[in-house]
Every structure is written in structure tokens, then in C-alpha cells.
Specification:
Length: 112
């Protein structure tokens, strides 16, 4: 996936198609996501897949340093999904939510 291309598509859609019900629903989902901080899907935060499966029942969110301390391993910036002690963690993508919801990109946490 070309991130720059998707970002530009989101900007284009914002200018020429300012309202879309699908985009509003995506934005509502992102607004309550714990790794959305100041309108950005934080790339240095990881969310437990258990949290995703049981949405809002558990609050398992970690930053990269915490996961490195827990695992005792160095986590590469290229990793998007890791498994530690039979638990799966998924990293935020780093995109600006305002533009991402208006592009064809998928949520890295599979919320939409």
C-alpha cells in the first residue's frame, strides 16, 4: 500500500466530497479508539488483539518501550503485529485520522 497515495486520496476526497455517511461512521469508530491521540493513529502504541476481539472490555494498550521490556526483545519499527506469550499485539499505523477515514485504506486494528 502506498501511504502517500492514500493520504492524497483522503485530501482529495475531503476537498471535493466533504460529506459521506461511511466516513462519518469510520470517524466515530476512530474517535473512541484508545490509540487515536490528537487525531492521529499512534504508531508507537500497540493494542492487544484480545482488546479488539472484546471491544472495550479490556484496556490493554502498550507503547513500544513497554513491550520491549516485557519481551526482552528489540521490536523492529517494521513490525505491525507481534506475539508475546501467546498474546497478539497490533501497532497503530501513524496516519492522520481525518484523511485516513476518507481514503480506501483499512484500519490496522480491523475496526473498519
Amino acid at each position: 500500500m502506498n501511504t502517500f497515495k492514500e493520504l492524497m486520496r483522503g485530501i482529495f476526497n475531503t476537498i471535493f466530497f466533504p460529506y459521506n455517511d461511511l466516513w462519518r461512521k469510520r470517524k466515530d469508530i476512530c474517535s473512541i479508539c484508545p490509540i487515536n491521540i490528537n487525531g492521529r493513529c499512534q504508531k508507537n502504541l500497540w493494542l492487544s488483539a484480545d482488546y479488539i476481539d472484546n471491544y472495550l472490555e479490556h484496556n490493554k494498550i502498550y507503547n513500544t518501550e513497554m513491550l520491549q521490556r516485557i519481551s526482552g526483545k528489540l521490536i523492529s519499527p517494521k513490525n505491525k503485529v507481534i506475539t508475546l506469550s501467546d498474546e497478539v499485539y497490533i501497532r497503530g499505523c501513524g496516519c492522520f485520522i481525518f484523511f485516513k477515514v476518507k481514503s480506501n485504506s483499512k484500519c490496522p486494528l480491523k475496526f473498519w
